[in-house]
Design brief:
The complex is a heterotetramer, with two copies of chain A and two copies of chain B. By secondary structure, chain A is α+β, with helices and mostly antiparallel strands. Chain A is built from three helices and five strands, in the order βαβααβββ. Chain A has a single domain, classed as Beta-grasp domain (Ubiquitin-like (UB roll)). Chain A is 24% helix and 23% strand. Chain B has helices at residues 14-18, 51-69, 99-116, 137-144; strands spanning 2-8, 28-35, 42-49, 73-79, 81-84, 88-96, 119-125, 130-132. The chains are: A alpha+beta, B alpha+beta. The interface between A and B is medium-sized, with 15 and 30 residues.
């Protein structure tokens, strides 16, 4: 699965994306965030404040409890500041 | 129906964008331009975006606002990458029969843009350092108020 | 402070008017353009005005809106005499630090213009006949609501 | 005193203005309107519905009960339709 990072999140992680094969018990966006945070830095720093993270599954905004089943790409980024 | 969407990394002229509406049914055109202003001693603004999502979200926003306000035309232009002081960041315009719809539409569009479009702004300073702009709670509150 | 007022009998380009605001303090510019639209099968619009009073009232309106909304710039252009279908009748723009002030200022200016400026519009038809437009009660109500 | 007419009012009166020397008992805008209306057409037609008239004294909007003392010009016109 492709995990893309944008803006401050991308800068902390240090790259645009990861390709990760998750264990089968990783089912929701929340599970992904916890799984990666448990790996330590830089994920633990980037994901320290989950309230300040937003997510998109295959280019659609999604809440953190949504399932990642059949999803190609999860994007993780801070609250937007466009306009 | 006139419908322009442009996501671009080069400067644009809001005046040219405003002139794109030409129809004898149009009685009212409202526009809004957001510009890079000299705050916090910045020398430039850098904008990162999620290309696929941004384009799609702008298209959805146009469709929504056309329906909601019975518009005859709508236009959104948004810059990304590096912007200099004084340059336009975003331009939205709405054309309608009467003035109320066009005016309300640009307020609505800007409120939505602030919270719905995957774009992130970063302030660039003279010494080369930079800082990501934080989302404003007032923008979130306005967005939820619709 | 940028302050433009123009009462003119020749066509103007709202896009050019919009570009007159140039200042690194400006973060937001809102504009409104009212145009001659094809209603009641008109072929043209004719506008009569009271030159001295109109100029004075526009100047007072600019001063008032600058103070009320802490604007960095304001612009009003209004046509008179004969206008063709599709031509801009009026253009107002307001520049400010943040978007709320500029957006509210153009709504306020248009509401005031509708009831305070001594201008009268007349519809011109294909057969050469004409009809004075009546003041709308909704415009009076909006004007009093401020 | 100069009495100027605009728009529909001007069209009904048939000219841009009149120069009229009023009797001394004509003190307010209302008095002027009544005095002219009493002269018959075209004034009686132009001023038939006084609710649909607006006034300016020396280029300042004025209510119909205002005094015309020391005024050079009274403008009479229908409700405005600018913007």
């Amino acid at each position: 699965m492709k995990i893309s990072y944008f803006a401050k999140t991308r800068e902390i992680i240090g790259r645009d994306y990861d390709i990760i094969h998750f264990p089968t018990d990783i089912r929701s966006i929340n599970d992904v965030v916890k799984y990666l945070s448990a790996k330590g830095e830089p994920y633990s720093i980037a994901f320290a404040n989950q309230d300040a993270l937003r997510f998109a599954l295959d280019n659609e905004m999604a809440k953190s409890d949504v399932s990642i089943e059949n999803i190609q790409e999860l994007a993780i980024f801070p609250p937007v500041t466009g306009g | 129906m006139i419908r322009y969407i442009s996501l671009q990394n080069c400067p644009f002229d809001p005046g040219e964008e405003l002139c794109k509406f030409r129809s004898e049914s149009i009685g009212a055109i409202a526009s809004f331009t957001g510009l890079v202003r000299s705050e916090n001693e910045i020398v430039a603004l850098s904008i990162e975006h999620h290309p696929v999502m941004t384009q799609k979200t702008l298209e959805q926003l146009c469709d929504m606002v056309i329906t909601r306000y019975h518009l005859l035309g709508v236009s959104i232009t948004h810059r990304y990458e590096l912007l200099k002081l004084g340059e336009p960041i975003v331009f939205v315009a709405a054309a309608s029969v009467h003035r109320k719809a066009a005016m309300e539409a640009i307020v609505y569009m800007m409120d939505r843009l602030k919270t719905d479009i995957p774009l992130w702004k970063k302030e660039i300073f003279a010494d080369g350092t930079s800082r990501w702009i934080e989302q404003k709670q007032s923008d979130v509150d306005r967005s939820f108020s619709w």
